[in-house]
Design brief:
Strand order of the largest sheet: 1-2-4-5-6-3
Number of strands: 6
Mean pLDDT: 97
Number of domains: 1
CATH class: Alpha Beta
Low-confidence stretches: none
Oligomer: single chain
CATH superfamily: Hotdog Thioesterase
Strand content: 35-45%
Helix content: 10-25%
CATH topology: Thiol Ester Dehydrase, Chain A
CATH architecture: Roll
Distance between the termini: 32 Å
Order of helices and strands: HHHEEHEEEE
């Protein structure tokens, strides 16, 4: 079981790691997850070069006024898994940020949906731009949402 801590990783420490080392540190608990992960209750559970998986169990705290999980939560999961997938491809001293992303919400998510995962996979990673896609699925493998991102790559 991974013992979680939350916070930020010092910029100098981040610069000393490859993107894959950084993302794997988030997944294995040797690095703290960002505080939005704590606030929303998600976890980085898998990380390899070009692929990152985030898990969350929806609760009543995630609901919009209509009684379904707020689309912003789904957007955050997709933005996070896709951006981290791009980060996993980068050399030491290089980082990325989201330039734009698009998502499509296909099925309602509720607490009754049970655990969900968001999986991001790199489509292309160049010197200045990285692209990835993401899929949110439930425990039965049903596609709940999907998205794409374009990330700007630059020196940290």
């Amino acid at each position: 079981m991974v013992i979680r801590t939350y916070g930020t990783v010092d910029a100098e420490r981040q610069k000393a790691m490859s993107g894959l080392e950084f993302v794997q540190g988030l997944a294995d608990g040797t690095l703290p997850l960002n505080t939005i992960a704590q606030t929303l209750g998600y976890d980085v559970v898998e990380a390899e070069a070009g692929r990152v998986v985030i898990a969350l169990t929806p609760s009543d705290a995630h609901l919009n006024p209509a009684g379904t999980v707020h689309g912003g939560l789904t957007a955050t999961l997709l933005d996070s898994c896709m951006g981290l997938a791009v980060q996993s491809m980068l050399e030491r001293g290089i980082t990325q940020t989201t330039l734009e992303f698009k998502i499509s919400l296909l099925r309602p998510i509720t607490p009754e949906t049970g655990p969900i995962t968001a999986e991001g996979k790199v489509l292309n990673c160049g010197r200045r731009i990285g692209t990835a896609d993401g899929r949110v699925t439930d425990g039965r493998g049903r596609l709940l949402a999907h998205g794409t991102t374009t990330c700007l790559i630059f020196p940290a």
